[in-house]
Structure prediction request, 1380 residues.
Amino acid sequence: MNVGIVGATGFGGLELVRLLQQHPGVKKLTLYSSSKKGESIETIYPHLNGIKEGKLEDIDPYKIPEQVDFLFSSAPTGVSASLLPPILERGMKVIDLAGDFRLKKSEDYQQWYKKEPPDPKWVDLAVYGLSEWNTDLIKNAQMIANPGCYPTAALLGLLPLIKKSLIEVSTIIIDAKSGISGAGAVPSVSAHFPFANDNLQIYKVNQHQHIPEIEQMVHHYSETNKPITFSTHLVPMTRGIMNTMYAEVKEGVSSKEIEETYIEYAEQHDFIRLSPSQGFPSTRQVYGSNFCDIGWSFDHRTQRITAVSVIDNLMKGAAGQAVHNFNLMNGFPETAGLPASPVFP
Amino acid sequence: MNVGIVGATGFGGLELVRLLQQHPGVKKLTLYSSSKKGESIETIYPHLNGIKEGKLEDIDPYKIPEQVDFLFSSAPTGVSASLLPPILERGMKVIDLAGDFRLKKSEDYQQWYKKEPPDPKWVDLAVYGLSEWNTDLIKNAQMIANPGCYPTAALLGLLPLIKKSLIEVSTIIIDAKSGISGAGAVPSVSAHFPFANDNLQIYKVNQHQHIPEIEQMVHHYSETNKPITFSTHLVPMTRGIMNTMYAEVKEGVSSKEIEETYIEYAEQHDFIRLSPSQGFPSTRQVYGSNFCDIGWSFDHRTQRITAVSVIDNLMKGAAGQAVHNFNLMNGFPETAGLPASPVFP
Amino acid sequence: MNVGIVGATGFGGLELVRLLQQHPGVKKLTLYSSSKKGESIETIYPHLNGIKEGKLEDIDPYKIPEQVDFLFSSAPTGVSASLLPPILERGMKVIDLAGDFRLKKSEDYQQWYKKEPPDPKWVDLAVYGLSEWNTDLIKNAQMIANPGCYPTAALLGLLPLIKKSLIEVSTIIIDAKSGISGAGAVPSVSAHFPFANDNLQIYKVNQHQHIPEIEQMVHHYSETNKPITFSTHLVPMTRGIMNTMYAEVKEGVSSKEIEETYIEYAEQHDFIRLSPSQGFPSTRQVYGSNFCDIGWSFDHRTQRITAVSVIDNLMKGAAGQAVHNFNLMNGFPETAGLPASPVFP
Amino acid sequence: MNVGIVGATGFGGLELVRLLQQHPGVKKLTLYSSSKKGESIETIYPHLNGIKEGKLEDIDPYKIPEQVDFLFSSAPTGVSASLLPPILERGMKVIDLAGDFRLKKSEDYQQWYKKEPPDPKWVDLAVYGLSEWNTDLIKNAQMIANPGCYPTAALLGLLPLIKKSLIEVSTIIIDAKSGISGAGAVPSVSAHFPFANDNLQIYKVNQHQHIPEIEQMVHHYSETNKPITFSTHLVPMTRGIMNTMYAEVKEGVSSKEIEETYIEYAEQHDFIRLSPSQGFPSTRQVYGSNFCDIGWSFDHRTQRITAVSVIDNLMKGAAGQAVHNFNLMNGFPETAGLPASPVFP
Prediction:
């Protein structure tokens, strides 16, 4: 299979290159970039020195379907909305890593992204690619809206409890922390090393565009449509997300019920791992891998659960989940092309 | 004034040395250490190369009152309880940076510290040294139980709202993050660089001994005695604490009331600084200083406030606050010996 | 093939686990540890949560040959000398990652390691496993003394110039810098995060045990036996080695000759990559991979070359090179089990 | 004394603000910035929240002499050349932290800076402000060209040996490493956190504009004018420079002579500290201070000395040395306004 990557010079794109280079189902990679077309990716990113087919092609949505069999798009949010429709029209299968097609309600997109929403026709077509929760839909999808990094960690940790109605959805508070690669490859003040190093920053409190994405799935699996509280921090590390999540446990729900729910859940999914009882995961233990590790504690003093999920934001939070979805869509083994082990230390 | 520092080779002790070396009211420093007695502190810590009076004296509670006029004790929690009483008996003024004398209820100490509590006589004598909130008590105290790092950040951010009854105390959730110097000077697995670097760890969820310390003050200023939720993270940075704190705002309370409360509060205190409206502080902006910087946002969707406080854990969270208290106890200007500006970047 | 790893809980061992888990020629892994025998490696290292066959077996040199077909030993230097002979006696193939068998002269071992050298019989048997330079010897070896991390980077960068007699060997100065994982998995003062972070340390100046290892190969490829200068630094990063190497260029040697030498060299070896002219590599560009990237500059003002080589100390500097050697010894493709792309960023 | 700071929003300027805020000889600070004139520095740098006189004034060289009594200029190199002459014409005392006036030979400036050199009249007037070596000249100077960060560390470590003719100047090789604040406050690719973190970079090999600055002083104190070798690395830390310096020791020179030279030197200068015999300094031990710490080892195998000097690049390498010079020029105690202790950890 010939596979294309749009936006290959961003962090999501680079991680796709890393994974797909060694994917057993990929015969050839074609890399696209509008800003760097004609250059070789190895002159920009010397870690790819020696890569075959490193030349960056211009992005022409009318030519892409003739050049590749499957497309990953890692263009910035706002670009996908206009770039992908001509490609989708031709019936091509696409995984989009941007935010454009994730929110089913146009008004949510407008409110939180402050941009014009894409044509609802394509939004309706798009399957929200949370691999473990939309597995069957993904298998049959033409197009995947690959989830955001924070929502992936949040939903994978909370949905098992919400689906079984073990917690009060209206009390959910998510305190999210991310490594700085989440801010992308373009230099900025908050990611300038002398400012970011030895520093902990908080940003977009109550205003992050991932809030409606989380709520959309939370509300889907619960009877309420109450808003949640969500805030995001920049931790001085390159990769990794930890979401610390708080909620009231419904009256009568026991620790044992929670434990059994999580155990059963982890057993069903290759990439979900549960910390031993009373243990909590750290971000480094999933570095470079597609795992989501979960730990939790039920505090009887407050009747609240503290659930913690960690992922690698560029893997399970972006390219890794995209490759997982690619495997589901094409009948490859779920773990094809994904590393068995995190990089540690 | 001749001043002694017990536990001079720990991080709290070292920071006291840095500050008191240049304090205008300190004539002579005497450094005590049981494990390193007889050695010079500069051979252990070369950043102090050239320090006058660097010799480490043995800790003898019966001799200390003859050697110094005022004592800072930065011994580990559990040691102060037996070390300080003979010194206090002699009427000497003491600031203790350990946890031994902070909790007024013996049962709290036993439950959370899993140690025998000190003689209640001395616990009763000890004034909880939250500089901005117990100012008058501190001025007249013989002995100060200097607050813990996390409680300092939490209480300085929350008490103004609690005192004015603007938030529902029972809904308080504190998500705390600390730099790794909080773990002390002794090497350990979780602070081993290859494990701690590029990693975010969570620990002591619902079990941290600072929980009852926070609750003690929160309950003092409110009508409830409901427990709070508190969890702690290790961020790959040397110094700094950020507490992200969530609570429901009482019905009818407006953003304006909250803003006015914080503005008035910041105006009254030299070391409290308020971020501009809609702004949030980062830990680096208080690095090496005694400031506590506060920011907040009221989310009308959820009726919750997100309040954020940052401190330098070794300064406002330990040695800096101790020197502030020392100033209060001795009639020095409140800012004496404390840097006017953080170290940035 | 059933493969055993002795010392699986050290950093070299962990990296072997990561690589061999997905190696196409490895059927089963057996992990050995004397200190942790009976435990499961995933309880010590949760990044391996879910690993098959994670149980740690006791190290019994008489049983190992019955349990596995091939052995990697990542025991500490000094242990291999007594552990491996009984295994070698049985004719088993072994790759040893420790320093015990690297130095051909007993007196060098004694002088630099301050330990008793192993039986010369086994030292003579051992092939120094610098993959690109001893390829044929490695293919036919029963036993490999896998090179040290610093010597690997130094030799891969210098030997092409030395072999062609382009530089004055007696003027070689190597300024080496390593990430802190080089110090191993056991917590220590110099690797304690509050001391190591935001800090640059220098250690073992003129005393590092890798000096004779470098000199042994340098002298083998040159006509001189003059000593070199070598010093080592600890950089606040987890992985990576950069060696900045200085030497006088022999009179009459041109830039062009140097360039052609390096180009030809890089073309012959899969894991050697040359920076574009006037470019220099950074450590991150080989993170998690088996590459050695090289850059250089000839300064006509001083008639000196500055050559720079970077590797991942746990990969090309340890486990990656060991797997490369394993491939050579067993007729697998040279790149089998080794990642095509570094992890970036 | 009313003191002005031009370029207050750069890192050198910020550090001057930190120091001069508490300098006993400074009555009032005026901050100048062309790009941010009219703004308050605390809105750009919240660590200065609450600073008196934080308003940024426009830079008008004809008005400055009416507004302040003494000027620090921390404008970028190339700007000082045209900005300062009108101010100097008025007889005002100035310390310039840029590179414009450091090189006495115009052709050196043109070759290494690729810019037009300033009027030689002012270059001749400027005293090179290496505090410990030009003390008397500085005391009587109208204008100081404050040294670069790398040259300060290099010269303070080497000049004692060169002046006494203990080493072969033609063999000097300086391997310099800096924290990333040395790259300044403007975001860039090499300082973008995801690229800079967990990475070691090398840059400007044999091309750094600090080379002629080092050579100028080295040649002044020796009989030779041979070039030196110098290369620079970016270490993932905020502050700190370590120069590892190699040179052949002249025949007949003993370890004892070197030791005595360094001991005598350190005894004469408040800000020079010598590591104990066989010990080496790390950068963290001078963090936030004006110290230069030195260690060394004489290797009899190679007849070479390895000398190591560390400084805080923003302090002794910039603002700290400038304040030291300000003290010398104005008859203040040499240590006035400079912290007695580094910030550690």
Remarks:
- Chain A touches chain D at residues 11, 180-181, 183, 185-189, 191-194, 196-198, 236-238 (CB under 8 Å).
- Chain A has twelve helices and 14 strands.
